[in-house]
Design goal:
The protein has 4 helices and no strands. The chain has 105 residues and is mostly helical. The chain has a domain of 58 residues. InterPro entries: Spore_coat_CotF-like.
């Protein structure tokens, strides 16, 4: 069974992936510009590590359930259960659900 990653975790992963891509770009660029061999070696090692980290983060992104969340949200909006852009309408729906739940108890 593949564990799913929550939407907020997916956003954090995306931020990390963006950061690691920036690190990778900087390391590659700087390693070509520096003349100090020791510094170049450090940057090249960082390049290898950043590539590996980027691949690992990309793999984790594949386990995200953002697509499922989007499908459910679209279904709920289409059926009128979720009004993302109209708070007054959403309040009415929420109150109807609350009333139904109270009547069932």
């Amino acid at each position: 069974m593949v564990q799913q990653i929550a939407p907020h975790e997916t956003i954090k992963l995306h931020e990390l992936l963006t950061f690691k891509n920036l690190c990778l770009t900087k390391s590659v660029t700087m390693s070509q510009l520096v003349s100090d061999e020791e510094l170049r070696s450090i940057l090249q090692n960082d390049t290898c590590a950043s590539r590996q980290h980027t691949q690992q983060l990309s793999g984790l992104m594949n386990h995200s359930y953002i697509a499922t969340y989007e499908t459910i949200s679209n279904y709920m909006m289409k059926k009128g259960y979720y009004n993302a852009y109209n708070l007054q309408e959403q309040y009415k729906v929420d109150m109807q659900i609350t009333e139904t739940a109270l009547n069932l108890s």
